[in-house]
Structures
1.
Amino acid sequence: MTTDIKLIQTDNVYDIVFDDNGDIANGDFLDSILIYALFGEKRASESEVPIASMRRGWIGNEGKTFENGSKLWLFEQSNITRAVLNDIQSTALDALTYLIDDGYAVDIEASAVLQNNQVVLNILIYITQSKVETRFFVLWQNTGSN
């Protein structure tokens, strides 16, 4: 894998890491791209969010045929059910499919679970048939299920 900027999560916000010399620290390309793909916001459609000013989305996606990011943000206020967890998995896979299309991975799996009142997203990225990268993200904390 190639290198990219190193990101760190503090208080649910990702920020760039600087090394001791004040230069931007190097990180793993995969970590950066997962954060970007999953937590960058795709704009919701009219059927998903009827009020235009609340559809969010990244302005850099405007006018493009392919939008970066995901719609995971749509689930922030959802009651957590198995169906919602399945939708979170599907949304995450949709956001990461371009890694396969662009040749960075041969397959990707995602699973969302409710664990200790947290929604946890587990990602398996098959770089090759024999090399698998595993990442997990806590999407929401202090949540329960119906």
2.
Amino acid sequence: MAGASAPITLEIDDREIRDGLRALQDKLGDLRPFYQDLGEALLNSTRRRFETQTAPHGSPWAALSPGYKQRKKKHKDLVLTLDGYLRGTLDYRATKDELRVGTPLIYGAAHQFGRPEIHLPARPFLGLSDEDRQDALDILAEWLQAE
């Protein structure tokens, strides 16, 4: 992801997925095609979080502060949405060795992790939900069964 960015890297800490990735890498060598399939699924899932206003684990994002909500000129009831740039710049990069899902916008990290010094609560939009984990396992199974 080109442009100014703060790295937002999320490790997959799931033994079943890691074991499946090892088996698939032994089979294919280059995991880019698998990562492209998974990247599309995770990109769609991450975009849906802007509709549901929820973190990967299902908890609602922190509400807007009353002062900001009053000053906000559009999308007053939507968190992380003013002009839609954050959601609109979500992308993924698949290589033979890894998949990264994120945004090139530097303020993406501030929203993902929060910034206590400016009273900005964390509103995670990146990460794996239980549904994402199952999708990853399903996509892995399809690739492992393919000839």
3.
Amino acid sequence: MPKVKFIADNIEVEAEEGKLLREVCQDNDMTIPFGCENGLCGTCLVSVKEGEDNLSEKTDIEKETLEAILAYEDQRLACQCKVQGDVTFDLD
């Protein structure tokens, strides 16, 4: 099973492959705020420190939102990406 590490909370957990990062965060009480949970508000913006290739490709909605909020290349919306391998992320 993939390992998901959240630096801000110093938490590392195993996650089912294909599970939304949002679900992993919520299931493990990680302190990431979620608003709409649909990729529109940008509340759950995280920075991927390692394993960016282990997340699903950006959806069209995610791309539009990231562009609108002027996100950096290493940033993703936790509500939109699926875990496909080990990943380490943090808040900025």
